[in-house]
């Protein structure tokens, strides 16, 4: 490492919910610097959730995010010519990042008319502990459990 590590820049909270995590989520969802479009998609998704479930969309989103966030992941490490999948715990900041990325990725892969509808349906299914993003988390945990024998190689 030649230079010092870059400092974490503080995020400004979003205008509607006054939450930095929402801004972080929207930044990940954004394409080509279209932040306004990304915010509109997110807020529309929250409205769709509120209409369909008769509950707060924002709270549903937070619950969905907590259901998706992984606790452990496997990392590849070369030891003596062989590559081992070593289970490691994830630091809290990365947990949130990975959860958000999975939610966005699987929402994009869903079929629906608009991105807001896709996002809303993925959030609703994740809040109920079902859907592709939750399956991804379970697969990751299963893989870490299967490779528990190599945890002594952890750095």
Structure report:
- The chain is mainly alpha-helical.
- The chain has one domain (20-25, 34-153): Ribosomal Protein S7 (Orthogonal Bundle), CATH 1.10.455.
- The chain is 56% helix and 10% strand.
- The protein is built from 6 helices and 2 strands.
- The protein has helices spanning 20-29, 35-53, 57-68, 92-109, 115-127, 132-146, and strands at residues 72-79, 82-89.
- It has a two-stranded antiparallel sheet with strand order 1-2.
- Helix 1 crosses helix 2 and helix 2 (35-53) crosses helix 3.
List keywords for this structure.
155 residues, mainly alpha, Ribosomal Protein S7, two-stranded antiparallel sheet, 56% helix
Task: Provide the number of structural domains.
Answer: 1
CATH structural architecture = Orthogonal Bundle
Q: In CATH's first tier, which class applies?
A: Mainly Alpha
Helical percentage: 55-70%
List low-pLDDT spans.
none
The N- and C-terminal alpha carbons lie at a distance of 18 Å
Radius of gyration, taken over Cα atoms and rounded to an integer in Å: 18 Å
Listing every helix as H and every strand as E from the N terminus to the C terminus, the arrangement reads HHHEEHHH
* Spatial arrangement of strands, main beta sheet: 1-2
The CATH H-level homologous superfamily: Ribosomal protein S7/S5
Structure summary, number of beta strands: 2
């Amino acid at each position: 490492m030649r230079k010092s590590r870059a400092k974490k820049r503080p995020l400004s909270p979003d205008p509607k919910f006054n939450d930095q995590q929402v801004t972080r989520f929207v930044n990940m969802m954004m394409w080509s610097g279209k932040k306004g479009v990304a915010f509109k998609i997110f807020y529309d998704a929250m409205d769709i959730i509120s209409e369909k479930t008769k509950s707060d969309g924002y709270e549903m989103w937070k619950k969905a995010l907590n259901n998706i966030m992984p606790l452990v992941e496997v990392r590849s490490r070369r030891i003596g010519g062989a590559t081992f999948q070593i289970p490691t715990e994830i630091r809290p900041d990365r947990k949130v990042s990975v959860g958000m990325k999975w939610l966005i990725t699987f929402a994009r892969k869903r079929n629906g008319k608009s991105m807001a509808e896709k996002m809303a349906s993925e959030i609703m299914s994740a809040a109920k502990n079902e859907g592709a993003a939750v399956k991804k988390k379970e697969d990751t945990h299963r893989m870490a459990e299967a490779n528990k024998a190599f945890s002594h190689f952890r750095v």
